[in-house]
Structure formats: structure tokens, C-alpha cells
Amino acid sequence: MIEVHLGDITRLQVDVIVNAANQHLQSGGGVDGAIHRAAGPGLLEVCREIGGCPVGEVRATPAFNLPVKRIYHTVGPVWRGGSLGEPELLASCYRQCLALARREHMRSIAFPAISCGVYDYPPEQAVDIAVAEVRQHLDGNCQLQRIVFCCLDEMLDRLYRQKLGVSEER
């Protein structure tokens, strides 16, 4: 049910991919830029119409040219030491995406490592929060059959695998 994938989130065969977006929902770097490039210009137009997304919340869009049903855009917190609510806001990103997937009857979802890029969230702490939120959601009445943590680098891949107790795929 929970998988770890090292590679490009835009190529995964899931119902939903989660975009680690910025508050303006404008194309940025990293995962956000890759998703916008792969989805095509229609995504930016829809994101402009939405107008933005507060930290810790989620907004959904069509997938356009991506091989998924939906894109969930969530805005993770910028790390400022952890005493300004960053853990709660990051946990909210995962909770809100999972709740939306449930409301929309999605069966599979892929998450990037939210806030671990330019937002400087400590990867070990971010992975702990991500895994805890997903496990808690799965303990409830959940129709999700597949949850993927998609990692851009081997360090994050290793952290997720260690936390989940799964072996490396090779």
C-alpha cells in the first residue's frame, strides 16, 4: 500500500500527484516546475484563476497533459527553526491532501517530499511527519489502495525506506 519511488513524479501512474507549490500557485523550481512543464500551459491558467493557496492547505486542478486524474497543490511551510508552527503546517498539507483524495474517491496518490527543497525543512523531520500522517490516515476508513512517496534524490529515498522499514528497489 505504501511505496517509495526514486524518480520523476510526473511519470507515475497514480490517480493524483501532489505538487509542492508556492502560495501564488505560479510555476517555480523543483517539483513544482517539473509538474507545470509536464502538464502544459493550461495548468498555469487554472492556477491563476484559483489565485493562490495558504500554507498548509490544498487546491485541486485538472491534470492536463499528465497521466493522472488530478493535481493537488499544497503549500508547505518554510523552515524557520520549528517554533513557528512548521510541523503542524506540514502535517496539515498531508492531512488535507489525503482528505481531499478521500472525498474525490481517488485510489492512489503520490507525494513529493513537501518543503524539503528550497523551503529548507530538515528532511528527517519532514519524513517523520509525512509517514506519521499517512499511517494515521490509513488507520481510518480509507479507500486509498496505493500511496507513493516520490523522491528526487537517494538521500530522501533512503530516509523514507528506513522510516517505513522497506527494502531498496533495484
From TrEMBL:
Give the matching PROSITE patterns. Answer: MACRO
Pfam family of the protein (one): Macro
Q: What are this entry's molecular-function GO terms? A: O-acetyl-ADP-ribose deacetylase activity
Q: Which residues form the Macro domain?
A: 1-168
- SUPFAM superfamilies membership: Macro domain-like
By its UniProt entry, which Gene3D superfamilies does this protein fall under? Leucine Aminopeptidase, subunit E, domain 1 (3.40.220.10)
Listed name of the protein: Macro domain-containing protein
What is the native source organism of this protein?
Microbulbifer thermotolerans
